[in-house]
Amino acid sequence: MDDNPGISLHLRELKTLPELTEISSEWNELYEASPVATPFQSPSWIINWWKHFGNEKLWVVAVYNRRVLAGFLPIYIFNFESGNESLRQLTFIGTGNTDYMDILCRPELEAETIRMVSEFLAGSSNSWDICDFQELRQSSPMLNIKLGEEFEIKTTHSGVCPVTVLPESLDKYLHSLPVSFRKNIIRARRQLSDLGELSLEVAKEENLDEYMAWLFRLHNASWHKRNMPGLLAESALQDFHRETAKELFQNKIMRLYVLKHNGKVISAVYSLIKDSRLYYYIGGFDPVFSKFSPGSVILLEIIKNAISEGIRKFDFLRGSEDYKYKWNAEDRSNFRMFIKKKDH
């Protein structure tokens, strides 16, 4: 299908979990090679998501250039009822609690990979009724999908992920923040330090389980204070994150930060990292310390560390909560793509 004699693409469909795990090493190599991939496209995230939540028909598409994995589309068929109809929806593995979803492509073969995936989607359309591809970034290769005239493609804005671009020094960053906000954080940090020893720790393998338990406890406690259940209240979600965090940690994709006051954990942040970008996934704090803004104090310490190690972007992920913009974050748009046959 390609004019370039060095390119010889073929497609493989993966429909079982063992097939997915079998290619995880080459999949991980593709993930590492992609400059636009996020941790949510890593094997650790997607395989574990399927283990915990996948109960439908797996239908992953792997594109090879000769023997080298060139593209990876992690999708499955989700069956649902709409009125009197039973519909088959093709969607990303991870839909629901995954902030960025996408295809993985080798940059030099992106156009060819997208063309082959487009042909696959069109050719397999008797097996699906609608495609619903959510949480696509503006740079997503999926936005270049083109099918024939018999298909309708509709792309809509679905939300934002505020991102802070970090300068080369903490001083420069602090002076970019609103004056009152900056003073309040520095004051809160000083007050905590005056009352006892304050320290930031990054979880190690030997205490990861302990600190994950603290994260769950503090996250739920801080949400309960607002009379809300929290995002980690369900045991199934905790099980998923507990198992996934171990693999992400081993692959140096996950960091769990805890803020301690006199040896007691008062705040925790579950973050992800790839290249020079740090992702704030979820956090929590002890409501007893709320007047000292422990959630803000730990963020200041994390950003301080990030700047010192050369991280240039701090991604707050989905949601336009007011607090994110106090950290000088600017919106990055996510998109949702629907594909259906025009006669359906």
Task: Explain how this protein is built.
The protein is of the alpha+beta class and 344 residues long. The protein has 2 domains: 9-160 and 334-341, Aminopeptidase (3-Layer(aba) Sandwich); 163-326, Aminopeptidase, CATH 3.40.630. The protein is 34% helix and 30% strand. The protein has 10 helices and 16 strands. It has helices at residues 17-22, 24-33, 43-53, 110-123, 170-174, 179-195, 208-224, 235-250, 294-308, 322-326; strands at residues 9-14, 57-58, 60-65, 68-73, 75-82, 85-92, 104-105, 130-137, 151-160, 163-165, 198-202, 254-261, 264-274, 277-285, 313-315, 333-341. A 6-stranded mixed sheet has the order 2-5-6-8-16-9, with no helix packed on it. A 6-stranded mixed sheet has the order 10-15-14-13-12-11, sandwiched between helices. Strand 13 (264-274) and strand 14 (277-285) form a beta hairpin. Helix 3 runs antiparallel to helix 8 (235-250) and helix 6 crosses helix 9 (294-308). The longest helix has 17 residues, at 179-195. It starts with 8 loop residues before the first strand and ends with a strand. The mean pLDDT is 94.
Topology summary:
Blueprint: E1 9-14, H1 17-22, H2 24-33, H3 43-53, E2 57-58, E3 60-65, E4 68-73, E5 75-82, E6 85-92, E7 104-105, H4 110-123, E8 130-137, E9 151-160, E10 163-165, H5 170-174, H6 179-195, E11 198-202, H7 208-224, H8 235-250, E12 254-261, E13 264-274, E14 277-285, H9 294-308, E15 313-315, H10 322-326, E16 333-341
Parallel strand pairs: 6-8, 14-15
Antiparallel strand pairs: 1-3, 2-5, 3-4, 4-7, 5-6, 8-16, 9-16, 10-15, 11-12, 12-13, 13-14
